[in-house]
Amino acid sequence: MPEYQFLTNHAQVLLCVAHDPGIRLRDIAQTVGITERSAHRIVSDLVDDGYVVRERNGRRNVYKVEAELPLLHPLTQETAQRRIGDLLEVLLGEDGRGPIRRKSKGAAGR
Predict the structure, then answer these.
(1) Over the stretch 43-65, which tens digit does the pLDDT of each residue have?
(2) Number of C-beta neighbours around residue 89 at 10 A
(3) From CA 63, how far away is CA 102, in angstroms rounded?
(4) Mind giving me the DSSP string for 8-39?
């Protein structure tokens, strides 16, 4: 298996949040294979940049992906403007509930 990944940790966290808006940071970390601290930092980045809205629901956070925002990448500028929702639809399916598999417990300590 290759040493590289096709999606950045930010993209993987965005997929987790889109797949399960009530997901816990612990579960994001385990799924992506990062620490909880890294998961928190990445979610905060996505919230600060407007890609994700974080709302408090009791003691838990609920997330909403702003699917209408543009993908900011030079490759997408050549053709019609692509949205975050376009990427999510390809990776998760139209209903946003495509399969997301957690990584093994040993991977979370990276």
Answers:
(1) 999 999 999 999 999 999 999 99
(2) 16
(3) 19
(4) -HHHHHHHHHHH-TT--HHHHHHHHTS-HHHH
